[in-house]
Write a structure and sequence with these properties.
Elements: E1 2-6, H1 10-19, E2 26-31, E3 44-47, H2 52-62, E4 67-70, H3 77-90, E5 94-97, E6 110-113, H4 116-123, E7 128-132, E8 148-153, E9 166-170, H5 177-186, E10 191-195, H6 204-212, E11 215-219, E12 229-230, H7 233-244
Parallel strand pairs: 1-2, 1-4, 2-3, 4-5, 5-12, 6-11, 7-8, 7-10, 8-9, 10-11
Helix pairs in contact: 1-7, 2-3, 5-6
């Protein structure tokens, strides 16, 4: 059986590695291509978009895909809706692997918003912001000229990108709690802006903010298409084994 994994997360890479050891399963991982030097998963790899629902449906047919697992980033909703429509059209079973969001606990100083633009409106009260929403979203904050931003992302923005005033830090998680505390203290950060990505790779900044009393503007996740969901790689493997037998 041939499995297509829509990747872009650590969970997707771990799933591809574990599926590659299962006899009778062939995996293809698809990455959008937004990260210049992605972590290359085990198994076959394709990079780039499909061309909407029609393109993905065609790919499923041509490549004779038996099973589709959507393990994309929780905020990459367009591909998730495309995958739902294409899988339905072709009749391919589809699973969504979605890590749980972070949950606010005692001591957290969260302001929850529903979009990056709303986060920018709320953040205008801050003075020094740790901006961790990715290079695609920098423009929403570029007009906030009185704020100094420390902007962390995997790849630097393009030369013509709208970028707020401050400093760019290119780095890839997972990050340690001590590392995140040092960043907040050294740069005198009073506010973090983050998407609620969930998972462990970048959770340390949320814990550091709690322990240091730093405010967090948290962008809630957008809606996802209906369908079967699991919260971790083990759940995805159980679904695969069920389909194999």
């Amino acid at each position: 059986m041939r499995v297509l994994i829509l990747g872009g997360t650590g969970d997707a890479a771990e799933l591809a590695a574990r599926v590659s050891t299962i006899q009778g399963l062939e995996t293809i991982t698809s990455l959008a291509g937004r990260t210049r030097e992605p972590s290359v998963p085990l198994g076959d790899l394709r990079v780039g978009g499909f061309g909407g629902v029609a393109g993905l449906a065609s790919y499923l047919r041509v490549m004779q895909i038996d099973l589709l697992i959507d393990a994309t980033h929780p905020f990459a909703t367009q591909i998730s809706f495309n995958a739902a429509a294409a899988a339905t059209e072709v009749g391919v079973p589809r699973l969504m692997l979605i890590r749980p969001p972070w949950e606010k606990v005692s001591g957290d100083r969260w302001i929850e918003v529903d979009s990056v633009e709303a986060a920018a409106s709320v953040a205008n009260q801050a003075q020094r912001v740790f901006l961790t929403v990715g290079r695609q979203e920098l423009a929403a904050f570029a007009h906030l000229e009185k704020i100094w931003f420390l902007m962390r992302m995997i790849d630097p923005p393009s030369d013509d990108a709208l970028v707020p005033a401050g400093m760019i830090l290119c780095d890839r998680g997972p990050f340690t709690l001590n590392n995140e505390k040092q960043i907040l203290i050294h740069n005198k950060i009073d506010t973090i802006v983050s998407k609620n990505s969930g998972g462990d790779a970048t959770k340390s900044k949320i814990i550091a903010a709690r322990e240091l009393g730093v405010k967090v503007v948290m962008v809630n996740r957008p809606a996802i298409p209906p369908g079967k969901q699991v919260a971790d790689v083990d759940g995805a493997l159980a679904w695969l084994f069920d389909k194999l037998h």
